[in-house]
What we know:
There is one protein chain. By secondary structure, the protein is α/β, with parallel strands linked by helices. The protein has helices at 3-8, 19-31, 68-74, 130-142, 161-176, 197-210, 293-310, 368-373, and strands spanning 10-15, 36-41, 46-48, 65-67, 78-80, 84-88, 93-96, 101-103, 106-109, 114-116, 123-124, 148-152, 182-186, 213-216, 220-225, 228-232, 236-239, 242-245, 248-250, 279-281, 323-328, 335-342, 345-352. It is elongated and about 65 Å long. The relative contact order is 0.17. Flavin-adenine dinucleotide binds next to α2, α5, α7 and β21.
Amino acid sequence: MSTQEQTSKLRVVIAGGGVAGLEAALALGELAPGLTATTVLAPNSEFVDRPMTVREPFAYPQANRYALEPIVRDAGAELVADELAWVDPVKRVVHTRSDGELEYDVLVLALGARITPRYKHAITIDDRQLDETLHGLIQDVEEGYVKSVAFVAPGRMAWPLPLYELALMTSTRAFDMDVEVDITIVTPEDSPLAIFGSLASSAIGDRLTKAKIKTITSAYAEIPRTGEIVINPGDRYLKVDRVVALPELYGPSVRGVPLSEHGFLRVDSHCKLVDMEGIYAAGDATEFAIKHGGVSSQQADAAAESIAALAGAPLTPQQFHPVIRGMLLTGEEPLYLTARITGGQGFSSEITDEPTWSPPSKVASKYLAPYLAAQAPATR
Ligand SMILES: Cc1cc2nc3c(=O)[nH]c(=O)nc-3n(C[C@H](O)[C@H](O)[C@H](O)COP(=O)(O)OP(=O)(O)OC[C@H]3O[C@@H](n4cnc5c(N)ncnc54)[C@H](O)[C@@H]3O)c2cc1C
């Protein structure tokens, strides 16, 4: 490529090699072919299908992993294996952990969230080591050593699905092994999986009842000692053999850009950082309350459309209007949930036995899901 060709292109740096970063890169490759010089900056050499890690403690195969470099290359971008350290928004330069500098015209921050355990006396769900942390518990349930398990969501909800999936899969496994186990879900939600709207939530409630899982909603838990849960309001008390909890998520606290509460990034309806030119953000790193891969992809698409228009592509960028699609693993056939939301609550709600999106992946996305469906994973 000649220097003149290079300089006439919009220089885009995408920081992050997860759902949002890769969706943004693939979307840009599709929407503005030849109009951008895109760099993906990420420390990970593989993309992991994070939602499928919930199956690992139940001795299913490992979640799929895909080499990152070919995905980035197929998006028409270049991979830099490093980490963003800080941003100089005036000079439009990203400084990397190993003292590199990347100049940009547009930056996309797709750095995900930081997983922080909320409870000292519980096993925290962390997809980087789910098999290690939960395999022993599932074995103890199977062998009848563990008679009661509570699955707890702290006050600030992380990802909505895995807590319910782990509870349902544990119940199915206990049933298959013909052992008795009391399972309780403790959640601050007003109803189970409330973000999917009342229709889906009530069907999930029925499913949990059928699986003999007790659900305590509108509940804020403290875990003062191993196996002891204090639930507020009401100062109720629960004693169980084991407690599994969702973590709390914190934003990436990027140095050089304005941050909102807990280090998250505040974006407008096109996913551009509020009060900051040339910087977009997408995914779990943003302030948007629902942390979900499908939502992350839609934010990445909104950002990519705006950036493609800036690069000269003939399109009118659409605003981010989230539609939440979730495949709920149950240990039996999965359920498919859809909600179109405004202001954080579902207003149209659907639950089906068959997928209503294609491909029927756990993370529903416009560019990444069809791309991955056509690839052989590096590891199954
Ligand atoms: C167990 C589990 C089950 C889930 N189930 C579902 C589900 O069924 N459906 C669904 O839609 N969602 C689900 N989710 C949520 C979904 O996985 C996340 O919402 C999604 O991964 C967020 O994508 P992201 O790109 O914003 O962040 P991430 O996937 O966290 O990716 C962040 C990327 O940024 C990189 N990075 C971090 N720091 C830096 C840095 N300083 N510089 C450069 N790069 C950096 C990381 O290496 C990573 O590549 C689940 C999550 C978990 C953990």
